[in-house]
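Materials and Methods. Structural model of General stress protein 17M-like domain-containing protein. The 198-residue sequence of General stress protein 17M-like domain-containing protein from Phyllobacterium sophorae was retrieved and submitted for structure prediction as follows.
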Amino acid sequence: MQTVTGLYDNYANARTAVNALEDAGISSSNISIVGREGETNESYAGEGAATGASVGAVVGGTGGLLAGLGMLAIPGVGPVVAAGWLAATAAGAAAGAVAGGAAGGIIGSMTNAGVDEDDAHVYAEGVRRGSTLVSVRVEEDQGDVARSILNDNAPVDVTARRAMYREEGWQGFDPNSPDLTEEELARERDRVREHRPL
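The predicted structure was written out as tokens:
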């Protein structure tokens, strides 16, 4: 299996990508979506999000992946609305770390699934700053289809985003970072728009 991932500054693009992946025959159990709740990603309410939902509710939705959206907190990212395998493994890793078990959180979950560690740091930081992550695990023969779907929905250029973050001295995702306020998220959205290629 391989993991194909895209980061989106617009939740609608991420949602469209998830629906297209399902329409292409990729199982919801192999797709994951993780994003900050609120204005950053439009409203999740219409997608079945339940405030205070447990990880079990996040993973156990029916009627497609988006029907199973639920709330959870990921260390260093803050409160997110999420569904799918990445949400479950990141939350499980965080619970293990809190209980003195294995650490790793969202970075460990992605790298264990085959995502390049440098890219995983950008993806995690992107979610922390208000973007939405879509990650899909597929067999080799579905890799090109999944990659094409994610690329067709205006994902972030990870190399350019990494460079933008590093301009301000960022070295990598820090799970001990404080949650961003709504004001900080709004400033980050403005900053992303300024750096977005025309």
